Each structure stands twice: as structure tokens, then as C-alpha cells.
Amino acid sequence: MDLIFFDLDGTLLNGESEISPFTKETLVLLRQKNIAYTVATGRTMLSAKDILKGHEFELPQAYNNGVTIWDPRTQKLTLEHLLSSTDISAIVELASLQGITPFVHAIDDRHYFIYHAAPRHQVEKELINTRYCHVKAKIFPIEALPANAQVTNISMIGAADAIEPIWQELKKNSSLVAYSGLAIEGNQYRWMDILHYAASKGSAVTSIKKQLGATNIVCFGDSDNDLSMFELADESYAPESGKVNLKEAASAVIRPNYEDGVAHFLRERFSL
Questions:
Q1: Segment 91-137, tens digit of pLDDT
Q2: Interatomic CA distance for residues 235 and 1, integer angstroms
């Protein structure tokens, strides 16, 4: 059984962060050939919901870089490697020292929560007003964060010279893993996502593979958080637009995401 895992941003999605009509048609062709596919993304379920709607992603899906696994058929939610209160305090303090507002993401019985301090920069305010206020998450001040909150990850955005020292300091913390890159809000900004060190797409892929009895794992990804699933995949492919280290680790490099690279490759690979 072939089982395909798609990263979303920079991989399956086009330059407008959407599933293009050509890619949509390709997913239909995969279903017609009974080729199984799902997602393994750094996004939360909430932020991916509208993107995946109508594209019949019916198999177990990995979100938050593997912290969250959702099975739409059984409506079962599995959470692994949540952040501890000690980790949360350390991250929030580091961000505060650099004048950055951390966004603490939590989940409880399929309800989503975002806790944050008052935004200090315009880019943070825009993030709240353009993204967070339009998703079905309950937004609270960080002081309201419960001691027993199930925190999946902490994200932040800011000027590169403010995010970089936080990232470097977090590298020294063996209980955490941080991913960072250029923000879509502009090249002068960087985003960062922080998780428990044991959280990874690779662990989620292994779990879903076992659950479904898959024998051949095919992965597509473009960034550092995809390395863990590349390492265990039977086949791994990175778009030309991906990071250099991903392209070096991949079985092959395909067209960039903004040229529907994944869809073009799938049509050739599986004779769709």
C-alpha cells in the first residue's frame, strides 16, 4: 500500500497558499486509483481546515508537526508531546526579553485557544486582526492560561534581529525544538514555532503508517520540519523552491510549489 504524506505550505500549496485547480484534479485522480494520501503539516488543524475542505482528506492527519493527529473517520484526536509549564515559562520569558509577543496555542476537547500578551509591534497586531480573529479559536490574554492547558506549540513573529537571538537561545534547551524562517509578511520578518523536542512529523508518520498498514511511504516537504519524515520515507521529494538541506536529503527534486510541482510529479509517478 502506497501512502503519501503532503506538507502544505511551500509544498502542496501554491504561491497563494491554496490548493490549485490542477492539484485538486490530481487529488481526484489519486482517489480514482485508490492511492492513499494525507497531510503532515506544521499548521494547526484550525488553520488547515478551510484549505483542505472539499478535497476529501479522509485518512488520519498530522498537525502541529506531529503533536496532533486527527482521524476524521473516527473523530479521534490524539495529542502527544505537549509543552510543559516549565517550557512555556522559559519561552515566554525569552520572547519578552526581546520585545516579542509569543502566541501560546492550546487545545481542549477539540476547542482551540490562543493566549498572548499585548502585541508590541504592528506585524503582531496584523497577525491577530487578519488571521487569528477570523479563525474559530478562543483568544485570551496570556494571564488567563490555565496551569493544566494542553499547549501544542508557541509561535511568534518579529523582526529578524529580534527572533534570531531567541532561536539561538532555544537551541541550548534540550527539551525544545524550534523552527524558523522568512515570514510571508515581508523578508524583514521571521516566524518561529517552538515545540517539545520529541514532537516531529516523523513520529506521526510512523504512527499513521502502522495504523493503516502502509508499506511504501512517499513524502513531500520543503523545510527543516520535514527532515524527520524524509529520514524514514521510502521515497521523499522536495520542490525546487525548498531549503537546500531538504533537497539534499530528498530522493529527487521536483518543480517548485508555485508551478504545481507535486501534482506534476504525481501524475508521472503514478501514471495518472
A1: 999 999 999 999 999 998 778 999 998 888 888 888 888 777 767 78
A2: 13
* CATH number 3.30.1240.10 given to 85-196: yes
Cα–Cα distance, 62 to 128 (Å, whole number):
24
The model's confidence at residue 218, banded by pLDDT at 50, 70 and 90, is very high
Q: Which three cell numbers stand for residue 60?
A: 488520519
- Are 2-80+199-269 and 85-196 equal in CATH topology? no
Q: Which residues of 86-122 are buried (b: 16+ CB within 10 A; e: fewer)?
A: ebbebbbebbeebebbbbbbbbeeeebbbbbbebebe
Query: Rounded CA gap, 89 and 104, in Å?
Result: 11
User: How many Å separate Cα 162 from the centre of its chain?
Assistant: 22
d(CA 4, CA 214): 10
- Domain segments of the chain as ranges: 2-80+199-269, 85-196
Q: Grid coordinates standing for 192? A: 518561529
Radius of gyration of the chain (CA): 18
- What single-letter amino acid sits at 264? H
Architecture of domain 2-80+199-269: 3-Layer(aba) Sandwich (3.40)
Q: Which three cell numbers stand for residue 195?
A: 515545540
